[in-house]
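hey m, so remember when u said the tokens were messed up on ur end? i reran from scratch. heres the input so u can diff it against urs
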Amino acid sequence: MTERLDFAWVYSITPLATFRMMTRLEHLEERARHLGQQGHTVLELRERQGVFHSVFERRVDPELAAWGPRFFSGKNMVKQTQLWQPPIWDGTRSHDAIVEIEGIAVTVAGSGGVSPLSSTSTRYVLNLTVESAGRLSGRKLEAGIAGALGRTIEAEHEFRVLWLERQHSSGF
């Protein structure tokens, strides 16, 4: 039993600028406010031994808590970790992703990365797998989490587009 989420977007900036945008404290905090994410806290944004750690947490989305009240409450925390590897010569940079939902027997893990399409555009890909250890309710739980997570990830992309438009208009 697993649910798979696959995303790919193109941004009109370099891989380095895309990486910097996605790991910038100001961007992360504004994105959380824009998406109405409650209890958002950045736990780590730094490089250690060549790997850039981006770790933050927030409360479970109200939509997910309403969908699965047996599993979630407004107090469940979601912790998201991205471990970015150093870039290679062309700016390509990959990351491992882990999403932990407090108190729930589900694993969300995958990978992503940025790579150049041209000198002024970047492809960002993200692939995640949602897997539950539960036998009876596992499939429903996976589908519910995958659906809510997919909508959140798409909303994050839409915010990045707005952010870039605003930065471009202000001379970024």
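this time it looks ok to me. The radius of gyration is 16 Å. if urs says something different then somethings off w ur setup not the seq
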